[in-house]
Amino acid sequence: MESLQKLKARLGEVHRIRAATAVLRWDQQTYMPPGGTNARAEQVSTLSRLAHELFTSEETGRLLEAAETEAEGLDYDSDDAALLRVARRDYDLAVKLPPDWVEEMSRTAALAHGEWVKAKEEADYSIFKPWLAKMIDLNLRKAEYLGYEDCPYDALLDEYEPGMKTAQVREIFGALRKELVPLAQAIFKQADSVDDSFLHQHFDVKKQEQFAIEVIRQIGYDFERGRQDVSAHPFTIAFSINDVRITTRYEPDSLTSALFSSIHEAGHAMYEQGIAQELEGSILADGTSLGIHESQSRLWENIVGRSREFWHAFYPRLQEIFPDQLGDVKLDAFYRAINKVAPGYIRVDADEVSYNLHIMLRFELENELIDGTVTVDQAPDAWNAKMDEFLGLTPPNDALGILQDIHWSMGAIGYFPTYSLGNLISAQLYDRALEEHPDIPSEIERGEFGTLLGWMRENIHHHGRKYMPTELVERATGEPIQIRSFMGYLRQKFGQIYDI
Amino acid sequence: MESLQKLKARLGEVHRIRAATAVLRWDQQTYMPPGGTNARAEQVSTLSRLAHELFTSEETGRLLEAAETEAEGLDYDSDDAALLRVARRDYDLAVKLPPDWVEEMSRTAALAHGEWVKAKEEADYSIFKPWLAKMIDLNLRKAEYLGYEDCPYDALLDEYEPGMKTAQVREIFGALRKELVPLAQAIFKQADSVDDSFLHQHFDVKKQEQFAIEVIRQIGYDFERGRQDVSAHPFTIAFSINDVRITTRYEPDSLTSALFSSIHEAGHAMYEQGIAQELEGSILADGTSLGIHESQSRLWENIVGRSREFWHAFYPRLQEIFPDQLGDVKLDAFYRAINKVAPGYIRVDADEVSYNLHIMLRFELENELIDGTVTVDQAPDAWNAKMDEFLGLTPPNDALGILQDIHWSMGAIGYFPTYSLGNLISAQLYDRALEEHPDIPSEIERGEFGTLLGWMRENIHHHGRKYMPTELVERATGEPIQIRSFMGYLRQKFGQIYDI
Q: How high is the ipTM of this complex?
């Protein structure tokens, strides 16, 4: 297995350069002084290019081919066989994108970001429109370079959710929509029956931090192999499976914003901390897709973190930390408040019921922009029409509409669906874990999370990138991605809260 | 100038990889969780090897040679001519050290560090002795690889203080010793006349931090292009001339430890922040030697930071922050306390008068170890004999003697003299700045540091590595490194404090 060993050494080097680049990016978002900006951009670009060149070199291709021949007949489930599958996939994708395109995308994204910020600040879509057009064009070219069977959007989606097809997403979302829209509309009518005003008082930021750290430590985020810092936008980043960091931001006038964001990021981070140590430093030491990643963050944020059992365990402590604000608020009122459902313009502020409607809107619009049935000129109207259709709202301006998300300015088209897939998968995995361990809810009630985390470790985290996302879901739950678990979860939880 | 342009691009890439490695090292010392240790070592080693391979490749040598031919006749003072001088020096040194030696040194240092820590903790020299022997052997081989005219120590010294010869240091130190020892002995007799006990009370760490940050901001450390964090050992590190960071550590029972360490590191950092923007990203964007670097840190820490004028400006504010501890302490008593002179075992705790005696001891012993007149078996006794000779003390154990410094465990022999050279140069530069701007002391008294910093910027910082250290001192002061300024400074300051 000489070629395989050489290939692993080479991929290990690529992995380490990428990890170093990640450290630079983390520092940029957390501690870097303003003066560092230009040099940091150059450093990141140099390291990215080095990693790319090393990975896409002919020598890598030669070693990969030779290793594949050596490895014929290897057990499909072995780490080596999985490594070769993943390396082949990554390599083929990486060599298909010409350096000129990569360079142009990177330059365009850098410029588009500033224009998007400005457009959003001024609620003026015309500023961003030419950049959206460029991004659509760059993504169409990307799809051509990468190739696809059915439609260009397949190639785009595949980057974020390997193996997933547009038609599959359309089918899943179609079924989901049919059940979700009536449920949402029924709940929206009762929106006023839940009061969450006490969540919006002054909450000392230091105390918020203290509580959030207690919570994520308790659910299983390992601070010996991670840390939490502050950044403008929360994120999770790994430099090793033994150094997986998260960030958050604190808002003095909101109790839940930083808290649920911390739990969300800790969910992402526990996924990476749970990858098998044997995979450390290899191309397999990463989450297998954004959808699976989101299933873990949403599991802990929503299914666990917004459950009655969870707050049975933590609410007394929270009241102890904020006696003035919460001393008189009963557990049931608190539980209802953190689960308040109401239609809104903004995706990132959406509740569990509305959230997927925001995603479906984006999935539809992205498809229409990519297949040309909607032009960039028509896009804001198309957005607003869909908002009305899905949520019964018309954004008063484009900042609260089509300009709200950063993703398109980064060139990321095909990314949004992974959020909803993650929601569906989180419920499906939780259902299966409950079947095997019916005591999980009562454990959560006692502040114990080991059984649930253990099940996720064994069935999801452990494997890293060994299996494709759909494959992994089927191995873990015995069936393909379905909407039954998620809809069942919503109906039970919100049916009870809103008495419908 | 095509080859020069290509060479610059290549050196720029090396520079950026090294800067990235520095970010990784900074993170390791400040924020990295324990779990990150192994992966970080691999990442640093990969990047270091990449930078080394790129820099020492034949292509770099070829471009360098071609660029030298192209650049013949270029003005000596031009950036390009200086870049080629420095690149040639670095390249020749780098290619002379065989990769096997570099690898062995790096492995030995990693192991020796742990053994040194243990030896020091247990005050047991026998644990460290075999590692010191290995380090001497490795340094002797290094000297042979690098080559030297006079003695092997020349080659070692040259790495830290380019162009400086052992004989020069011996001459300078000989002259210094003649004047310094009698002065020190006279002062030591009066040591008890200064009371510094009030510096060792409880000082709230947050308040210490607040004051230190006020001070270093005021003297000119630019927080827009830097930041201060906490680490086990204070250091300065640059990722760009616009991102130069310092660290410190706070001791709740000492007012001066963190404060003067912050000013010291800020002195180093202001040097790098002051390098001309035109040199950013090039091989010239660094300090020119450890001695010059130390001249800047010591200038701000001692000549400025321990001056009466400085505390005239800052003492009222310090009293305001620590009214309980300092409310009744007069400025004069405070000034005398922070300048208390007393013989001690430990270099890093030494006052301005004793400090250089500690260095001379190490310089002599390093030379004897390298030329073989003292063996590793004899080294502790030799150390103790010199301590008695220079400072009139006999260390009660080797932890307070030969085991106190980390340097030899890192393989750094030839490094120590740069500390004393820095002290001498700091006084020499300050003298010259005063000649040109006699108002500097009264500006300092008003808390204004712009004239002094401006002079250093223009004469030292601005040039980066364009000139060799001795050359730079001569350009700035019109004469070679001398002891007159430093001895004059000590005599005036301590003669007054100790009334001799």
A: 0.94
